[in-house]
Amino acid sequence: MSQLAARLGTTVSSAKLIFAALTVTWLLAAQSVLAELSLPGIFGSNMLIQRNEPVRLWGTSPPQATVRARFGPRQASATAGPDGTWQVSLDPVEAGGPYELTVSDGSETVTLTNVLCGDLWLCSGQSNMQLPVNQADPAEQTMALQGRPNLRLCSVAKTASAKPLASAAIQWRSCTPDSARDFSAVAVFFACELLHDPALTKVPIGLVDSSFGGTTCEGWIPEPALARFRATDLHDSMFGIKPANLYNAMIAPLGHTSFKGVVWYQGESNSAHPETYPALLGTMIDAWRQQFAQPELPFLIVQLPEYANLWEGFCWPWIREKQAEAVQGRKHTALVVSLGTTDGFNLHPPQKQEIGRRAARLARRVAYGENILANGPVFKGATVTGPAIRVTFDTGKDGLASAGTHGLKGFAVAGRDGVYHFAEARIEGDSVVVQSPEVSEPQTVRYAWGGMPQATLINHAGLPCAPFRTDAQTYANVEIQPQPLTRHVATATYDLVINANGMPSSLLFHGAQFLSNEPGAAGGGSIPGFWGPKPLNQIQENGPDLLTCSDSEVTLQMAFAETSMNWFIQNRGKDPITFQLALSPFAQIAAPLVESVTTLARGTNSVTVEGFNTLTNTPTGTLLSCTIKPGATQAITLK
Prior knowledge:
There is one protein chain. The model is unreliable at about 1-35 (pLDDT under 50). This protein is of the alpha+beta class. It has three domains: about 120-365, SGNH hydrolase (Rossmann fold), CATH 3.40.50; about 380-455; about 485-639, Beta-galactosidase, Chain A, domain 5 (Distorted Sandwich). It has eleven helices and 39 strands. Strands 1, 3, 4, 6, 7, 8, 9, 10, 11, 12 and 13 form an eleven-stranded mixed beta sheet that branches. An eight-stranded antiparallel beta sheet has the order 29-30-31-32-39-36-35-34, with no helix packed on it. It has a four-stranded antiparallel beta sheet with strand order 14-15-20-19, with no helix packed on it. A hairpin with a 3-residue loop joins strand 30 (about 545-550) and strand 31.
């Protein structure tokens, strides 16, 4: 690994060349509008500018024009070059506002209103950073959906580019219930927690959401910095987005903006190649710090939470380990441990408030210099003592505790054979003594090592310990993966299974299967979505014959009778949805679809279905589907 790090590491001289090349690119890319005074998209009314840092402005104007800029009590001027590009740097401004920001070339003036000065945070990554407040846990949304005049939200358009862009489609808004609804949930909860800090209650906060689901880390790194990587170490993001192309379209247009820090939540799309992740993430951090001319810019890295299933063939402890490795030894960075925030059965867990809270605590220590306890117990070392291993921790003088009611869980030990067995554990001061009756001579220990570990070690502040191990075994992606409960409804006429995603996965009438068992969207019931079938995994049994499956936007209510069932699908979202039922290839269409009614048959069994309006033949069977408009409810009857 040290050789790999040396091969992939950055150098000071190359970083300077990258920064110089990017500066030239930004300036040259803007030359198409030389005759008009303009600012790039990152500047807009309702924006927030970082306090106590030079206020850097740039843009285009007529060649050789004298450009004068004013922001609050500060003003400065510069002369545009022959190509019409200019840059102005104003002295720092303390927290406050609102102000006007004006830029004039003598004949034209650009005025931005309602501008605050405070702390600006860049929030980036893939889908779990992108997940908006309106898809978060309903119990958490109340806190986020409030008006906060001192909180400003900035959204960078989700796109990619083969070349660095000088500007992008960027929208600034004051935080209202409407604007927060579609904004990153992690980012909003992070800001809410910061605003609760007595030292920051009078400091405006700004959030720049530059995230894109399904993206790899290398997509966010400038192309010159990727030159030191082997081509085989670089991978496209989802949708065929090439390395560097997200940086070009969503980070480069931020230009020389000053930030208080960065919150980075990504890693799922690199989980199949964990060995290169520390070098990739480290390169990205260096490149962004160079671009923003902030060599000590804080980075908070969210470690991936529980997830039960394999992702791209790998379970997640390996990418978690590499996320921690990327932070170790790198100044002004911190790891946000997210274990214990979700049930582990959803790739996009709606629980985001606790992640925002933990990130904010680390921000208060790393970015604001507050002397607070911001992380859980930190592994220090392990010593074999006969049949047990004593594991010691840095507890920050806050001690050790268990989050569970059934003792301390999450430890495993192995002997010389390297086979791990779960171990009993007990707390002794700032140490944990672990032992297993199956391992008489333990050699190594692991903690929280699995896709969805049952790990309970915390400090008295309730902050969890990060996963760790003392062995050097190579990747092994075999583990027992727990699964959530299904629901089973049985009468003398039919037998229905509702899977953990709140969808019918098996439907027998008089013992004959009518649904397909093909994997994914080709099987059973589903609501196709951008990231795959939409899970309605908030399942409630509302009565002996009533079942409700929902998320924040869609509810499927099922009412059961002895020989029939009625399904009601309510769409509370802002976009249409499609509900589809994939039939078994042995189920035949016995009567044509007329006015949303058809008949299915298999052998001597027949079922009348009402409520679907489209019938599609596929290689794996027939699809029945219906479209539900926003605010509408669709009734489906099977009898």
